[in-house]
Design goal:
This protein has no helices and seven strands. The chain is mainly beta. The strands form three sheets. A three-stranded antiparallel β-sheet has the order 3-5-4, with no helix packed on it. It has a two-stranded antiparallel ribbon with strand order 1-2. The protein has a two-stranded antiparallel ribbon with strand order 6-7. A hairpin with a 5-residue loop joins strand 6 and strand 7 (94-101). It is elongated. It starts with 14 loop residues before the first strand and ends in a 5-residue tail after the last strand. 8% of the residues are buried. The mean pLDDT is 81.
């Protein structure tokens, strides 16, 4: 079945079915768990004046130099690499962005 609308990539909240009893178990079809690995600590940001509360995104209240110091994504996956980008924005001002990524390369 084709998906239409803006919620096509929603994670299902359906439960597994026990093949013997054909009843629902308490296990999700797509379980999401926070990883136990600590992950690499990365600076994430910087936060702009328009951001209401960057501390909401900082893990363990680790906020320094206008950046969060996080080890995992919001969904709990550990960072394996820290990336930084320098670029010119639309007003031709220099800008930077620091992120942690859970897989791949910068």
């Amino acid at each position: 079945e084709d998906c239409e609308g803006e919620y096509c990539n929603e994670i299902t909240t359906e439960f597994e079915v026990d093949t013997k009893t054909l009843t629902f178990t308490d296990e999700y079809v797509c379980p999401i768990y926070e990883a136990e690995e600590k992950g690499v600590e990365c600076f994430v940001g910087p936060w702009l004046d328009a951001d209401e509360s960057p501390l909401d995104d900082c893990q363990d209240d680790a906020f320094e130099y206008n950046f969060c110091k996080n080890r995992k994504t919001k969904s709990g996956r550990p960072f394996v690499r820290c990336c930084s980008f320098v670029y010119l924005n639309y007003a031709m001002d220099d800008s930077c962005l620091f992120v942690g990524i859970e897989e791949g390369t910068c």
